[in-house]
Amino acid sequence: MVFLCQFLIHLSYQNSKKRNKMNIQNAQLDVDNWIKNHGVRYFNELTNMAQLTEEVGEVARIIARRYGEQSEKESDKNKDLGEELADVVFVVLCLANQTGINLQAAFDKKLDLKTNRDHDRHQNNEKLK
Questions:
Q1: Which residues are paired to 21 by β-bridges?
Q2: What is the distance between the alpha carbons of residues 2 and 88, in angstroms, rounded to a whole number?
Q3: Which class is 2-128 in CATH?
Q4: Going by DSSP bridges, is the β-strand pair 13-14/21-22 parallel, antiparallel, or unpaired?
Q5: How many whole angstroms separate alpha carbon 73 and alpha carbon 41?
């Protein structure tokens, strides 16, 4: 878990002509190096998908109890939301690596698409004002 916290800190923001962007490529390399040096090998894609579902469930549990209407159990009060989110990011990066996805390129493309498609939609949404 300490590695995951250091890993998230390492997700630095670099200046770009378009915008500041998180360097996902370096994060993917960091995860790959960690797997090679500490993890023996990647779990297969189905195992990682199951792990991702489990980690997202842990995030959902914290959010539902801490910020939602459910009461938080005493045993959940010390859970670190940031750490659980870092677990999700780690597994997503594993899946991207093992399936040959350049997540930086995919993220940049998605952000551009959402920016062009949704800017006016959200700016003019009365529900958000």
A1: 14
A2: 15
A3: mainly alpha
A4: antiparallel
A5: 36
Q: How is residue 76 written in tokens?
A: 């959940």
Average confidence (pLDDT) over 71-78: 90
CA distance linking residue 22 with residue 1, whole number of Å: 21
Residue 122: per-residue pLDDT:
83
Contact at 8 Å (CB) between 95 and 52? yes
Cα-trace Rg, the chain? 17
Listed in sequence order, the residues at least 6 apart from 36 whose beta carbon sits closer than 8 Å to its beta carbon are: none
Provide the 3-class DSSP secondary structure of residue 61.
helix
Residue 43: name the closest of 84, 107, 97 by CA.
97
pLDDT digits (tens, 9 = 90+) for 89-128: 999 999 999 999 999 999 999 999 999 998 888 888 889 8
Amino acid at 25: Q
Q: Report whether pLDDT(87) > 70.
A: yes
